[in-house]
Amino acid sequence: MAGDPPPYYQEANKTLKTPSNLIRIIRDKGEIRERFTLDASICIGEDIIKDSEKDRKNLCVKTKGEGEIDIDVNIAENKEPIPSPTSDRKEVTIDVETFKGDVSLRLHASSPDTRPLLRVNVTSGSGIVVLSIPRSTAGVIETTSTGPVIVSDKLTQMTNIVTEEGRNRNFIVGVVDKWNKEQKDQLTVTAKYGRVYLRYDDESNEKPEVGFWTRVFGN
What we know:
The chain is an all-beta fold. The chain has one helix spanning 153-156, and strands at residues 14-15, 23-27, 32-38, 59-66, 69-75, 91-100, 103-108, 117-124, 129-133, 139-145, 149-152, 159-165, 168-173, 185-191, 196-200, 213-217.
């Protein structure tokens, strides 16, 4: 049915079992289905990174043309305690984008006390976006879409809408005691011509039934 999330694929075509801190996949067209493990503590030598990639992402997956993207990401725990002050806390940056097609990104991570901050950007130029986040998420989700933003039952209980203006809706997710945006998770979701689904990563990956998705914002 049009507008439903893409089906969930239990096994990716290829599995990256060894943790990495630098993954970049850019294709002209075609679907991308992968599984990765990111470890923000791994050091990448400057001689490996091109000058054009100095401002790189830990994970960058893009399709310039038509192609569905289906990605599973496991985020490794910090090997050392969270530093004090927390301004020294590591971040993991993820950028997933397709020009045309559905995008499904599932993030798996442990407690915010034992993992890096999330800096995530997910975009579909024409298609729906399904973002599944870990229960440890605490911060802001910013969405832009022509269609509705649909939040699952369980995530609804931990989500408050902060602002809504036109196609833009911002949410606070999780328990946020002392607000400091720079020290909270930041996730941006854009469906230029489509709708957005938000849910936890441990919720059912089946297509939604009536009553599963309860909070709907937008038309």
